[in-house]
Write a structure and sequence with these properties.
single chain, alpha/beta, Rossmann fold, OB fold (Dihydrolipoamide Acetyltransferase, E2P), 7-stranded mixed sheet, 11 helices, 19 strands, 27% helix, 28% strand, binds S-adenosylmethionine, rRNA (uridine-C5-)-methyltransferase activity
Length: 444
């Protein structure tokens, strides 16, 4: 097994001695699940959350934060070497989070009439199939089971107060929690946005309209929890949980919240995308702007621009910014955000980057001096990588939430580009997720 990478599920940390059942065993890597721990690593620390082990969030909390950061840094380096087979300069040390708990501005809780119960809880209930309500998070890989969350450490208060107030009211008044398998029940989701500006948005998603019950619950919430600046509800009669094709209705407040990155203000509605960790989002964008090396005369393309936040963030240092994004609503938000921040040199286009980025588009908007690309986890489509090689901008800043696909794409771009700088940023403490920013310079 020397030198072979094994991906192990089941909360294993370096230094643990554990039996692993392999589910895949390839030449260079294997995959498996922890079976029996013989000894625990001395690196382990006491988890801070009562839901640790069952909840899918904060899975790395048994490691000290400095160790988590070290492993993330190592992971980026491994991917660049093993997947990309790349040569690169020393990476900058990972930018760890100053706030390692309560760092998310958005959380979505799910109502379910099927709480996930441990064996002990089932035994204690004394019934064969005990049924309980839950308001919490889905158990990984069990689509119809939800872990009832009492206290979550991912978001600032009043997150727990709001969740527990809604739950207690619902139980007291026998309101029905959704049954995911049967697709029945009234209460479906509770989506919270708590911003660094202090604004709080709550969106209660229900299966169908029950005006009296809805008003009673929402009024109770407003009366019990101070500081809710916007309260909405959304009726979702569909099978899936997505609200993107639905119309949230404003019950109280202005219908959106505002978040700040440096002195830029972003309007966030119930359907808007925004970086979930505002604190580290700002750090990430500063690195991106710094790597772009702008002097005020550059044409910058912001590919996969979402609601335009990177483009807007770098706009004062650029001659002009062109943002491209698949989701039309995100582009509408980008335009609105640019206008609200008096950014007049940014233009945004809705569509697939592969379709939009053709020769005519670049001819019309100008040859890029810098391309910033921030694709989803799957990375860039091969066609786009090929196009970027053809367009050959002097600099590319590649922002990635998945260093494995980033390494694959960098290997392709390596045909014309050299890696100049690498900066990992930790956006999600206590998880395996890692964001990585790479500056590429054209060789010729
Ligand atoms: C990682 S997010 C980046 C968002 C943005 N840069 C930010 O910092 O908020 C990736 C974005 O790519 C968009 N996207 C995915 N596939 C796309 C495609 N083929 N063409 C254009 N945009 C796409 C997604 O909708 C999403 O907004």
């Amino acid at each position: 097994m020397d030198g072979k990478v094994i991906f192990i599920e089941g909360g294993v940390v370096p230094g643990d001695v554990v039996d692993v059942r392999l589910s895949k065993n390839k030449k260079d890597w294997a995959e498996g699940k922890a079976q029996l721990f013989h000894t625990y690593s001395p690196q382990r620390v006491e988890p801070f959350c009562e839901h640790f082990g069952l909840c899918g969030g904060c899975k790395w909390q048994m490691l000290p934060y400095e160790k988590q950061a070290e492993y993330k840094q190592q992971q980026v380096e491994d991917h660049l070497r093993r997947i990309g087979h790349l040569e690169f300069p020393d990476m900058y040390p990972i930018l760890g989070a100053s706030k390692t708990r309560r760092y998310r501005n958005k959380l979505e809780f799910t109502f379910s009439n099927k709480a996930y119960l441990t064996d002990d809880e089932i035994r204690a209930a004394g019934e064969e199939w005990p049924k309980r309500n839950a308001l919490g998070f889905h158990i990984p890989r069990l689509f119809d089971k939800v872990l009832d969350i009492r206290t979550c450490h991912l978001q600032e208060e009043p997150a727990n107060l709001i969740k527990n107030t809604v739950r207690e009211w619902a139980e007291k008044h026998s309101l029905s929690f959704y049954d995911i398998r049967r697709q029945e029940g009234w209460l479906r989701n509770l989506v919270l946005r708590i911003c660094t500006t202090g604004e709080v948005m709550v969106n209660l998603v229900i299966h169908y309209e029950d005006k009296a019950a809805r008003i009673a619950l929402l009024d109770h919430l407003l009366a019990t929890v101070p500081g809710i600046t916007t309260l909405l509800y959304t009726i979702n009669p569909k099978k899936n949980d997505s609200i993107f094709d639905l119309e949230p209705k404003v019950y109280a407040g202005k219908g959106y919240v505002e978040e700040k990155l440096e002195d830029f203000t972003f309007k966030i509605g119930p359907k808007s995308f925004f970086q979930t960790n505002t604190y580290q989002g700002e750090v990430l964008y500063k690195v991106t702007r710094d790597f772009a090396g702008l002097t005020g005369s550059e044409v910058v393309y912001d590919l996969y621009c979402g609601t335009g936040s990177i483009g807007i963030f770098v706009s004062r240092q650029a001659k002009k910014v062109i943002g491209i994004e698949l989701i039309r609503e995100a582009i509408d938000d980008a335009k609105e955000n640019a206008a609200a921040n008096a950014v007049n040199n940014a233009t945004f286009f809705a569509g697939d980057v592969i379709d939009i980025c053709d020769d005519a588009f670049f001819a019309e908007h100008g040859a890029p001096d810098v391309i910033i690309t921030d694709p989803p986890r799957a990375g860039m489509h091969e066609k786009l990588t090929a196009k970027l090689l053809e367009v050959a901008a002097p600099r590319i800043v590649y922002v990635s939430c998945n260093p494995a696909t980033q390494a694959r794409d960098l290997a392709l771009l390596n045909e014309k580009y050299t890696i100049e700088k690498i900066q990992p940023v930790d956006m999600f403490p206590h998880t395996h997720h890692i964001e990585n920013v790479v500056l590429l310079k054209r060789r010729y």
